[in-house]
Write a structure and sequence with these properties.
With about 240 residues, the protein is of the alpha+beta class. Helix content is about 35%, strand content about 10%. The strands form two sheets. A four-stranded antiparallel beta sheet has the order 1-2-6-5, sandwiched between helices. It has a two-stranded antiparallel sheet with strand order 3-4. It is globular and about 50 Å long. It starts with 20 loop residues before the first helix and ends in an 11-residue tail after the last helix.
């Protein structure tokens, strides 16, 4: 189900002007400040994930797409399960077969974020979906304690990000980050997932063959349009889709 190419604020139904999105959907992209890599690292470190948002034009596309997905599939989770993850509609498909989080390739999938946040060029946004629950500690908003992923699961994710993304792509530790949205921020709570951000991955190498082999091995068959989506997320490497 493809999202609309361009959506103006005038095209959005009134019921979509809600919550924190109500003001941003009417903004011009030129008035939106893209998140720098340094800002992203600070937001993740301070657990202020509520600050992350999409570029206004992308937000409008997302809201219109969401409206269509709900009308056709009943909910966004239903769409993701059936069309993106292929873990539905049969509930049995969502039952893990491995022993734990990220231990069995059949229990997780790696996809590009179809509607990434408003990051500066060069930041690639990937989502890892898991049949296993990712446990978090989420203190009440009145607490000074920061929400976080429980230590055991955080360690598993750290190892996974290192062995699956950073090491194979030959990237510096400071150029790879991950985060998990807290329950109150999740648009899809029924399927657990976390986000992986790659800053300026080695796209030059990817055009020469071996790099693409690495990336396509990472993504597997989960996202079959790897080259086109990779290139479209960064204007500087848009021609990668033609390689």
């Amino acid at each position: 189900m493809a999202p609309p190419a361009v959506v103006s604020a005038d095209e959005l139904p009134a019921e979509l002007f809600v919550g924190k999105d109500a003001e941003r959907v009417t903004m011009d992209d030129a008035d939106f400040k893209l998140f720098s890599w340094a800002e992203l690292l600070d937001i993740i470190a301070e657990a202020k994930l509520e600050l992350l948002t999409r570029v206004p034009s992308e937000l409008r596309r997302y809201l219109m797409w969401k409206k269509g997905a709900v009308a056709r599939y009943g909910s966004v989770p239903n769409y993701v399960l059936e069309e993106r993850l292929h873990w539905g509609p049969d509930p049995a498909l969502l039952v893990p077969v491995g022993r734990g989080l990220l231990q069995d390739r059949r229990d997780y999938k790696i996809l590009f974020n179809d509607f990434p946040y408003g990051f500066e060029d060069g930041v690639v946004h990937i989502v890892v979906w898991s049949k296993f629950r990712i446990h978090t500690i989420e203190p009440p908003t009145s607490s000074r304690e920061k929400p976080r992923v429980e230590a055991a699961d955080a360690a598993v994710i750290e190892d996974f990000v290192e062995s699956t993304f950073r090491a194979p792509l030959g990237m510096a530790k400071g150029d790879v980050a991950w985060f998990k949205n807290w329950a109150v921020l999740m648009s899809i709570r029924e399927i657990d997932h976390f986000h992986v951000l790659l800053r300026s991955p080695p796209v030059d190498g990817l055009t020469r063959g071996e790099g693409w082999t690495v990336l396509e091995r990472i993504m597997g068959a989960d996202d079959v349009e790897v080259r086109r989506k990779w290139g479209s997320m960064d204007a500087r490497v848009a021609l990668l889709g033609k390689s």
